[in-house]
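Follow-up to my post from last week.
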Amino acid sequence: MEHRSVLSRRELLTRGLTGAAGLAAFGATVSATDGTPSHTHDPHLAGTVGEVPVGGFDPMVFLEHFDRGRVGRLPSGQTLREYDLVAIDKEIEVAPGVFYPAWTYNGHVPGPTIRASAGDRIRVRFVNGGSHAHTIHFHGVHAANMDGVFEHVMPGEEFVYEFDAEPMGLHLYHCHAVPLKKHIAKGLYGTFIVDPATPRPPAREMVMVLNGFDTNFDGENEVYAANTVAFAYQRRPIRIVKGELQRVYMTNLTEFDPVNSMHLHGNFFHVYRTGTSLVPHEFTDTVMLCQGERHILEFTFQHTGRFMFHAHQSEFAELGWMGLFDVVEPVA
Amino acid sequence: MTQRGRAIWPWALLPVVLLAAMAVVFGQSGLVQFMRRGVPPVEELTFERVTLKPDVITVGIVNGGPDPVTVVQVLVDEAFWAFSIEPGSRIPRLGRATIEIPYPWVPNERHEIMVLTSTGLTFAHEIPVATETPSADLRFFAVFALIGLYVGVIPVAIGLLWYPMLRRLDRRWVDFALALTIGLLVFLGVDALHEALETAAQVAGAFQGTLVVAVGALGAVLVLQMASGGSLKRGGVEGRRMVALLVALGIGLHNLGEGLAIGAAYSLGEAALGAFLIVGFMLHNTTEGLGIVAPIARDEPRIMTLAGLGLLAGGPTILGAWVGGLAYSPLYATFFLAVGAGAMAQVVMALYRVLGSEAVGGAWTPLNAGAVLVGMLVMYATGLLVA
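User reply:
Got it. Predicted complex:
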């Protein structure tokens, strides 16, 4: 971006003149440079203008949608979960009216939230319908040739990834074709949840992928969000029932910025780092996530009303990574 | 033309008709899509004018690119913010739009406005020091008139007071003053051209700022040459008076550009306080008055003529300051600066002719040649005080 001053050489010259004006007007300056208080501090003015139609991708639906695959059983008795993932080039709307030429898994960013239990066999048939070579690199424990790194799947080709879901925890998957940064920034990523053999206690569960979009390709994100659409959950707050346990699977797939974070208002949450333990590591209201880092967050609201949640990097918050929980009384 | 005209005109129209037909074929055939190869449209938005009122920032933008641009979001200081856009968010080629942003800007601090288009491109504008934009009230006009007075009118008027001295001088030294005037005008002309080209860089691409400079400057030379050619050729008192008029006009145009820039800088909050430089600036402009009286030094002009010439040279500063303060546009500023540069070039030619036909011992005596140099050096030296 270019900043051009209206004046260049004349700037100094005019410094003298402003003096002249002040002198001429006997100190009666034209402008209110004396720190006049401002009054426009309406919080509703912050944020984007307009709405993103939810026809294509609805962050509300994505929030609570977990894909458990087509369930079958192997001769050994092991549970088999089969998925189809297709790489598709698609223009997505990341803020009202702002379109980003994304690379997607299954036509949306993030890709589907894949969920299995520890020890399940995962079989993913990956079809590359995009215009570049892609892969799927799952985080987890698996064979080297199932790592989605060396076997580039060319456009029009397909590949089957097969491995056991382990260890239990909150993981992620993303394209590992080179240039890596480009393939991730363009939108090829998603959440991979491996539940413990004995499930976690019942809770209202949500998945949030922290991401950003470099819409002008200058190596910096213009738009930030939880689940792609800037301010989506501020526009439409997430309804929460008071007293009910909430569980958020939060994954950071922001490119360009090394660190993202989550801050919850009016409450504290338990942090299960990488979701690999059933005992919380921390009780806090702000947690930091490096690129690729993910945590399970658990909390219960004691008060009704609207509570913000957002990155504690104020810049990210005001560029879209900002949402609201609307806590209501349980229905009697 | 009658008998032959019938034969000629169809031939003149033929290429035009063919061109129109080709344009239609090109537009209909999908060739445009083929040649674009799916490449996204090139977008270009230019900020024209930013005004600050309490809690409101108003931004004027122009689309100087080849395609329509849709402004979908506005960021202030790296935060998405509420805004309204008139007449609409889709800005056609060469179209303009005004964005109003309710924002609690902080006086004396830096702010950055960025617009985000539907394709995700960003265009940014920096407000280096936020200051409230003056409104077009009586005080505004009074203050800006005073600025113009101090910068343009008073220095020129003071310079005119060299007239009684010039009148008593030996012919050789009157020639010296004329040659000195050439020096100052060359300096001012180059300065105006430089400023015109610099401002041209801020003009939206499609308006071709650099070519506005070429057209404005050359246009000024041609128009002034046409209007003054007769008087100049006749020479004598009439010729010299015309030269004085041209000098005043050229300086006036230069000062108009100066006023525009000053007004714009002041109202856009780009001017910081600092008083002592005025003195230097007055010195710088005072020499302009000398240039006006030099050609008519021995013709005993009436006092009203002198006053009129002074006003013509200095007055436009006030006008420029008003316009610059209220409705600055890089395009118009570029044009006026270019016209000023052209006017200056034409005056230099006229002065050279006067010097050539009337100077004792020819135009380029060592004294006269030295005078041109002295004129430029004087401007350079006084320029050091203001730049």
